[in-house]
Design a protein that fits this description.
By secondary structure, the chain is an all-alpha fold. The chain has twelve helices and no strands.
Length: 250
């Protein structure tokens, strides 16, 4: 493994994400609201549905057996069943949404925000690139952002938003409804580290800056999506607060 490149990948994520996390992620990591949770579920379920297809496209272009094994293990958690649960990540996300007042129909039919659509179209383009390393860095590179150990390694205090404790403490959600965060937190800690190792191992000499640029662009586009989710969360919370005041006056 190219340890120098591994360090550059980690530094890129620290500087591009953890030093200044999007407001939605900061809220998820500290004081999530109903609006924050609903906005996350309404859009991230769509990411969860597409992620296996992006990975499948990457695998179709990848000749490296170790990378294929990594992706298959990854897909088992997303599509079939997480090792720490009886459900896959999409089902757990839906359960989380139902616990904050969303119906399965609402979750399934809620449209993609424009920023969500833009990110997904970009990821589709990268995943279909004949150069599998480009797709892997764009799609799987986002999993590094869920590695709770990475910011601690660099002395950064911001969290990933996957810790279930704030949701239990602030919203009073039951453990069974927070299983998505628990299993994702565990999975992404490992997947993030392995993704760094794969990028560092398979990136040929002379392509380091190209690959780092792909990772940076992925974070920029995800940040735009998360900022749009923050706006949605603000609208949802304002509506809930207005309804609560109206009900209280009756």
């Amino acid at each position: 493994m190219n340890q120098s490149l591994a360090s550059k990948v980690e530094q890129t994520v620290i500087e591009g994400w953890f030093l200044d996390p999007p407001p939605l992620i900061a809220a998820m990591a500290n004081e999530p609201t109903i609006g924050v949770t609903r906005a996350f579920v309404l859009q991230w379920t769509k990411f969860s549905r597409l992620f296996p297809r992006w990975v499948g496209s990457i695998m179709s272009n990848c000749p490296e057996f170790a990378v294929l094994a990594y992706e298959v293990e990854n897909l088992m958690s997303e599509v079939v069943r997480d090792p720490g649960s009886n459900s896959n990540h999409y089902q757990l996300l839906t359960r989380l949404g139902e616990s904050v007042g969303l119906s399965p129909y609402e979750i399934e039919t809620y449209p993609e925000l424009p920023e969500t659509f833009d990110l997904f179209e970009w990821l589709w383009g990268k995943a279909r690139n004949p150069d599998w390393l480009i797709g892997f860095t764009a799609v799987n590179g986002l999993e590094i952002l869920g590695d709770r150990n990475l910011p601690l390694k660099y002395g950064v205090q911001s969290g990933t938003g996957l810790n279930p404790e704030p949701y239990a403490d602030t919203l009073g959600l039951e453990e069974e409804n927070l299983e998505f965060f628990r299993v994702s937190d565990q999975a992404d800690a490992g997947h993030g580290r392995e993704t760094v190792e794969i990028i560092a191992h398979y990136t040929p000499s002379g392509r380091e800056e190209e690959i780092l640029a792909v990772l940076k662009e992925a974070m920029v586009r995800l940040r735009r999506m998360m900022n749009a989710l923050w706006e949605l969360a603000t609208v949802v919370d304002a509506g809930l607060n207005s309804k609560a005041r109206t009900d209280g006056e009756r």
